[in-house]
Amino acid sequence: MIQMYDLAAADPAVRFSPYCWRTRMALAHKGLDVETVAWRFTERDAIAFSGQGRVPVIRDGDTVVFDSWAIARYLEARYPDRPSLFGGSKGEAHARFINSWADGVLNPGLIRMVLGDVFAVIAEKDREYFRTSREARFGAPVDQVQAGREQTVVGFRQSLTPVRTTLEAQRFLGGDEPSYADYIVFGGFMWVRAVSNFELLDASDPIAAWRERMLDLHSALGRNAPRAQQASGA
Amino acid sequence: MIQMYDLAAADPAVRFSPYCWRTRMALAHKGLDVETVAWRFTERDAIAFSGQGRVPVIRDGDTVVFDSWAIARYLEARYPDRPSLFGGSKGEAHARFINSWADGVLNPGLIRMVLGDVFAVIAEKDREYFRTSREARFGAPVDQVQAGREQTVVGFRQSLTPVRTTLEAQRFLGGDEPSYADYIVFGGFMWVRAVSNFELLDASDPIAAWRERMLDLHSALGRNAPRAQQASGA
């Protein structure tokens, strides 16, 4: 069985990395069983075998792969008879643009709205690392970056225009069926869902309807994923 | 031979529509001969046969198709044995995201930097229509929208991050070879090239190197395209 190191909150059942969620969904798309290992930011020793310090990392037999994009390519090449993630070389090349957009626009936009919510749920031992690194990146106290999000969400929604326009024309970013492109973008929404009850989307947004379809995929893997107490309102 | 209605400047040899350039490049990719017909904004009667008032419009035998995306899909379906534009259904679905990004981010960013240059080269009979419609859209005199572009270009370059990151990893947006995704983005650069000598890109930008490769494709179709005098500095 494939083993996957997966970023976890203080509650080890809560998994919130947008990049790990790309990989979880890709594994499910391929119909591959996976054993996830809860991992915290500061547990670099635990994944030192991968030669670097970030997740997702997968171990498939003797093969170790890190980086969500590299993992998706590995799975597509290693399991070509399972449902395709990319639909060929042009599909993969075009998906890389969507990956670049998500890394450069979507995820930076998202984190500004939930950074404090993330900070509130991570493991105690991760807090100092997280605070120091994020305060350096954002130039503000970690619990204040998301202040005013009821206003900044307006611009964030505007930045989603390429997703919205695409989903007005087709059911999934992959067309009639989901592809890795959908998992790239969905990962960002799972990140927020895991840690926050802040609503990113207007209920009438076509992206909100797509998100519901995505939550139901692969035996409702996303919908059934545990959320932090503050996220679920429990 | 396929006939294509193509937006022209006062000089009928200067063709500057980013959407028409998508179609020109797609036709060349398919190796299809084309006869272009110079068309001006106000010549709606000339394309009334298409049932709408904008270019590109193509006529292929008895078939009339308008809208650059619809034309690309038509060409792919009608000429399946020619080089593929999309590489299958997922490649097409993912390309639609890139199309949406270009329509919603790239092209709106570009026009703010060259609106006055466009206005300066269009046909006399188009000027009143263009001025009125663009001043309504931009809320400013048509020759002042591009003011300060030496500063606004910095933010524009930042908006190209998804293209840049992708081209750092692969030769074309389509992968090793160009696909319709490349033509979508390249159309915007041909728009600017036709009408302006304003330099959009830093010389060291990977997108600049890609643009050179694109200009050379299909017997240097882009590089050999006539530019307005003010653009070429002639």
> Strand order across the biggest sheet of chain A?
2-1-3-4
Beta-strand fraction estimate of chain A:
5-15%
Q: In CATH terms, what is the architecture of the largest domain in chain A? A: Up-down Bundle
CATH structural class of the largest domain in chain A: Mainly Alpha
The run of helices and strands of chain A is EHEEEHHHHHHHH
Tell me the number of helical segments of chain A per DSSP (H or I, 4 or more residues long). 9
Topology:
Two copies of one chain form a homodimer.
Chain A: E1 2-7, H1 18-29, E2 34-39, E3 57-60, E4 63-66, H2 68-78, H3 89-121, H4 127-138, H5 149-159, H6 161-169, H7 180-195, H8 206-220, H9 229-232
Parallel strand pairs in A: 1-2
Antiparallel strand pairs in A: 1-3, 3-4
Helix pairs in contact in A: 1-2, 1-7, 3-5, 3-7
